[in-house]
Amino acid sequence: MAPAGPYGRCRSCLGLFIRIDEGLRRYPFDESARPTVEQALGFPPAAASGPPERCPNCRGALEVLPKDGEFITRCDRCGLLCRMQPGQRLVPIVVQPPEGGWNPELQAIFEERLGFPRRLRRHPPGIIEI
């Protein structure tokens, strides 16, 4: 455990903890805010080991593709497609036809060419399909 005042960070799982009553309790935070939280608590940035497991939009499971030295993710619930930036920050990828709007066929072809299994959605990415 790497200490930073009343806070600690596990070297293996990178979990953040706070010392309370001579014990440790997990510090609650949203994984997408990890760099900001670590900086605020006085820790150097954690080495990025890979993309998060959950979608920052709906908390669905992320499908992950390593692509050209980075990661591309797609949420299994809301279909949000993202590229992982340094510091485990997911940035949405917007697929838009030349005429504007959203085209489900174009979206499915784009995702398939990236390497994801083909999935034709009824709603634009970011909206949970029920």
**Helix and strand element order:** EEEEHEEEEH
> Could you tell me the radius of gyration in angstroms?
18 Å
Tally of extended strands?
8
Task: Tell me the overall shape.
Answer: elongated
Write down the domain tally.
Answer: 2
Unreliable residue stretches:
none
Largest sheet: 4 strands, antiparallel
Spatial order of the strands forming the largest sheet? 1-2-3-4
Fraction of residues in β-strands:
25-35%
- Tell me the span between the first and last alpha carbons: 42 Å
Helicity level: 10-25%
Number of helices: 2
Structural class: alpha+beta
What would the average pLDDT be, to the nearest integer? 84
Task: Put the structure in a nutshell.
With 130 residues, this protein is an alpha+beta fold. The chain has two helices and eight strands; from the N terminus they run E-E-E-E-H-E-E-E-E-H.
Description:
The protein is of the alpha+beta class and 130 residues long. The chain folds into two domains: 2-41, no CATH class; 48-130, no CATH class. Helices cover 15% and strands 28% of the residues. The protein has helices at residues 34-41, 104-114, and strands at 2-4, 7-9, 16-20, 23-26, 62-67, 70-75, 81-85, 89-92. Strands 1-2-3-4 form a four-stranded antiparallel sheet, with no helix packed on it. The protein starts with a strand and ends in a 16-residue tail after the last helix.
Fill in the keyword field for this structure.
130 residues; 2 domains; 4-stranded antiparallel β-sheet; 2 helices
